[in-house]
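Reopening this one. Same input as before:
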Amino acid sequence: MTVETQNARCGWCRHKTVMRPLKETTSMNEGPPYDGDRPGWQGFRCSGCDMPSFAFGIFEVMSGHVQAFFPQKWYPLGPLVRDYPKSVPESITKFAIEAHGCLSVGHHQGALMCARSVIEASAKAKGITSGSLEKKIDALFTGGFIYEHVKEAAHEIRHMGNEAAHGDLVDDPISSEEAYAVLELMDMVLDGVFISPGKAAAQKAARAAKKAQSSGA
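Same output, byte for byte:
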């Protein structure tokens, strides 16, 4: 019997999907063949985005053959490489990419602290350099750089980042789902502060160039 398909959340596209097992990617712990539970790795491919993932779990072996596989952890937890448009300052992009990199290897508190740094750096990039992070976020809103729902997203990142920095998550560590949600909020802030305005400015420039070309023809 071969390993069956598994229902899981893909670390690449983040959708709940059916993971198809990849042939010849089964790797159980070394040792003499025996029946029972054996830990090991199995490769899969997402039915949605077609990207490969690996799962660590338990193989159920009977008569020397795999009867079932029970995944315990999936890798990667998130995209290993994240791209941002040039409208996001390079120094901030590096922090944002590092946040996603931390998430991809299960370093959730590191991801939170990077996300918090992204928010503070974003405020400073808009000339907001004084006061606490709480006040910087509020200044982003009053300055017209972000909408209210984006302001609330930034404050949630601030709260979670503070908990990570102060060790408040030691007894109640953050889950991968919670960390992913925080990075979604981080990307929402980047979109509000840099990406959407950059797209609007590019569209405005393209329209003006087209109009100038038409009038000069």
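So the earlier flakiness isn't reproducible anymore. For the record, DSSP finds five helices and six strands in the chain.
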